[in-house]
Every structure is written in structure tokens, then in C-alpha cells.
Design a protein that fits this description.
The chain is mainly α and 219 residues long. Helix content is 67%, strand content 0%. It has ten helices and no strands. The protein has helices spanning 12-32, 38-47, 50-64, 74-100, 125-139, 141-150, 160-163, 165-182, 188-207, 211-217. α4 (74-100) packs antiparallel against α9. The radius of gyration is 20 Å and the shape is globular.
Length: 219
């Protein structure tokens, strides 16, 4: 009679950490559910959704720059680097979710799955995406203020939006990441891991994986 192969067992320390993470996440979820409106949490979810991010970024790229001049203008380079980072994030999150395969919280309801790996919880793709965007805005803050906010969107250079743009994006990223636990989509460790990954992605794009450097690889 054939026997099933032994299943890999996690270490006791890892199991205790996962159990603690599960308990804390459930406590936060049940504590804030009666307080925060579902519509607010859902709006935060949509604001960091890749199905919204990619069309908006592509629309900005195509409406601000003629196609023939896409790689040559400061605005197009900025948006191309943002797209490169977003694709890099999508790849890393997909691979990590597939390898770890941590189930989502049992109380996660009414969630639309874009990809098969979205069944899995670790790490949070929303947290990584918004943290990458916040890190990207930090490193490219000068270009974003000058070329996007002032020249294209016509904000005044002394306006609060231009002056505190990076701070506002950072706050949005933090609140959106926290909302993933409060909406029941993720555990706390999923969100922390996703945020750390997103910050790392922003650094990699700024230092290495940007259009300027990639274009030199094919010369």
C-alpha cells in the first residue's frame, strides 16, 4: 500500500509567531469593524488596486507625451520608471505568494481575485504597491513636483499639495496598508512584509532598475 509523503512541518517558533499574528489580526479586525465604515475601507482598497493603478499611469503617460517622444521627456521617463517598478512589484509579489501559499483570513469576504495567486495572503500586494509608490515619490520628489504637479497639473509651487505631496502619499500608503488588516484581507505580518518589500522595490528602481539604466543594457 502506498503511503503519502511526509508533510513539511514548521518550527515551533514559527508556528507560535503565526498563531500570534493570526490572533492579533483577528482582534484588530473585530475591534474596528463596528467603528470604521465598510465604504471607507473599500475606497482605500480600490485606491491601491493594480487594476486602477496601471490604466491611470498609462493614461497619464499617453496624454502628457506624444508617443514618438515617450522616452525623451522628463515626465515620460518618470512615468516609465513608475510602470517598471509596478511590474517589478507584480512579479515579486506573485512569486512570493506562490512560494509561501499562506491562506487568507477565514473572515475575508467579498473579494475579487484578479490572479490565481490572489488566493494567498503573504505578502500583501496592496501594501507593497502603495509602499513602492510612496518610496518612489520620495526619491523622485523633485521631478514629480516640477514636471507633474506644477507643469502639467498646474498647481502653484507654493501650494500645500506641492509642498507636502510626499507626506500625503506616505500617509495614504500607511493608512491603506493598515486597512488591509481592518478589512479582513490580510494578517498583520502580510502587511509588514508587503510594506518592506515595496520600500525595497522603490530603492531598487531608483538605483538600478530604471529606464535610464535598462536602456544601456541593450546598447
Amino acid at each position: 500500500m502506498e503511503t503519502e509523503p511526509p508533510q513539511p512541518r514548521s518550527s515551533p517558533s514559527l508556528r507560535r509567531l503565526i498563531n500570534l499574528d493570526t490572533a492579533v489580526s483577528l482582534h484588530l479586525y473585530t475591534l474596528f469593524q463596528p467603528i470604521l465604515p465598510y465604504s471607507l475601507l473599500k475606497s482605500l482598497e480600490l485606491s491601491g488596486d493594480g487594476r486602477l493603478f496601471f490604466p491611470v499611469t498609462l493614461s497619464l503617460l499617453l496624454t502628457t507625451t506624444p508617443i514618438a517622444a515617450v522616452p525623451s521627456t522628463p515626465t515620460s521617463l518618470l512615468l516609465l520608471n513608475l510602470l517598471i517598478g509596478a511590474l517589478f512589484d507584480l512579479l515579486l509579489i506573485g512569486i512570493t505568494k506562490h512560494l509561501v501559499q499562506r491562506p487568507r483570513p477565514v473572515y475575508n469576504k467579498n473579494m475579487f481575485l484578479s490572479f490565481a495567486v490572489d488566493h494567498w495572503s503573504f505578502p500583501s500586494g496592496h501594501s507593497s504597491r502603495v509602499s513602492f509608490m510612496a518610496t518612489f515619490c520620495f526619491f523622485y520628489s523633485g521631478q514629480i513636483r516640477e514636471f507633474l504637479l506644477i507643469n502639467i497639473l498646474n498647481f502653484e509651487a507654493e501650494s500645500l499639495i506641492v509642498e507636502y505631496f510626499v507626506v500625503m502619499v506616505g500617509l495614504w500608503a500607511a493608512i491603506t496598508s493598515v486597512s488591509r488588516v481592518l478589512l479582513g484581507r490580510h494578517f498583520v505580518l502580510d502587511v509588514i512584509a508587503g510594506a518592506c518589500l515595496g520600500i525595497l522595490e522603490g530603492l531598487v528602481v531608483f538605483r538600478l532598475l530604471n529606464y535610464e539604466n535598462i536602456s544601456t543594457w541593450f546598447r
